Amino acid sequence: MNPLYSINDIANIYSPGLLFYKDLIRQNIARTIEIAGDAGRLRPHVKTHKTREIVRMAMDAGILKHKCATLAEAEMLAGCGVTDVLLAYNVVGPNCARMARLARAHPSCCFAVTADHAAAAGALSEALAAEGQSVDVLLDLDVGQHRTGVAPGPEAAALYETIGRLPGLRLGGLHVYDGHNKQESFVERQTAALRALQPVLALRETLEKSGLPVPRLVLGGTPTFPVYAKLDLPGLELSPGTCFLHDHGYAAKFADLAGFTPAAVLLTRVISRPTSTRITIDLGTKAVASDPPAGERCVLLDVPDYIPVLQSEEHFVVETPAADKFNPGDAIFAIPTHICPTCALHQKVYVIEDGRCTETWAVAARDRVLTI
């Protein structure tokens, strides 16, 4: 057993259960700040952990700006006392009214959202006006992923100007998420990211020359975070998400993230030994993210030479020559490949300190609606 994850007593921890190692989270936060150069340059994404307690740990470390993807996450952040929240998601439909109510409920918090379409921005403006509220708007730019955003160029400049004329919308800068830049080589990733950044910087220059403010430039996710951290740009904000918890997927692929340690581990137990070479554990797809390919969704610790056979909703079957060493009830630890959706599958996490479970934390923002 890896000594990092040893626990003195697991009798009262239900499986499958998600464990957060508080000291490792603290170390990962410190490493994030070290790469950024200063806590003030960070706007980490809370989509991974979705917990109030990690938000407060980050705040205690000097990280005061935060990013999120849902209104529930935004509400959680404001409830923690965060005064600068970016909802990096285009607000549409009835969520426009929810955003306005959220702004009214937390007047001490500066909320920002992203937008990439004039009609959507107009609907948000109307909803805010009905509540007498205002928010910052960052223009969402598409630099190659083609998921959301508008390509940097004349159309983007015109849209930014249009947004600035709408009541209740303050021009807040530019938002760039380059989730497609996941090259294993840091040099290749850096080259791709910096190439895509050039038209963004050109757009910023155009906007500022026309008299439009561009106070923020929010860049990247975890893979490109070390790239942008090397830059010195006005208003630069770095928004990694996974690194506070880290996971096997990033640990295995990105050598430049070696300073981070997976701080979230799954506890699972053997429930059957159906053949002499198989064990079945209670780690089905309802407990670990299933977006990685079958058989690659986690790494089992201390199960020698295992081969995944099948996984269903509540079962995970593996072949191992050491099957006869396992009995029903035996505990096995697993590091998830993708921690972000794994967290959303658990209502609470067990917090481990000094080899003991000291408390549980609610995964508060896994729900789509909190109170607003």
Structure overview:
The chain contains ten helices and 16 strands. It has two domains: 3-16 and 260-366, D-serine dehydratase-like domain (Lyase, Ornithine Decarboxylase, Chain A, domain 1, Beta Barrel); 83-239, Alanine racemase (TIM Barrel). Strands 1, 9, 10, 11, 12, 13, 14, 15 and 16 form a nine-stranded mixed beta sheet that branches. Strands 2-3-4-5-6-7-8 form a seven-stranded parallel beta sheet. It has 372 residues and is an alpha/beta fold. Helix 4 packs across helix 5 (118-131).
According to CATH, the fold-level topology of the largest domain is TIM Barrel
Using the alpha-carbon principal axes, give the shape: elongated
Query: Roughly how many Å is the radius of gyration?
Result: 22 Å
SSE order, one letter for each helix or strand: EHHEHEHEHEHEHEHEHEEEEEEHEE
* Helicity range: 25-40%
Major sheet summary line: 9 strands, mixed
Give the name of the CATH superfamily of the largest domain: Alanine racemase
Gist of the model:
This protein has about 375 residues and is an alpha/beta fold. It has helices at about 20-35, 50-60, 70-80, 95-105, 120-130, 155-165, 185-210, 225-230, 250-255, 340-345; strands at about 15-20, 65-70, 85-90, 110-115, 135-140, 170-175, 215-220, 235-240, 265-275, 280, 300, 305-310, 315-320, 330-335, 350-355, 355-360. The chain folds into 2 domains: about 5-15 and about 260-365, Lyase, Ornithine Decarboxylase, Chain A, domain 1; about 85-240, Alpha-Beta Barrel (TIM Barrel), CATH 3.20.20.
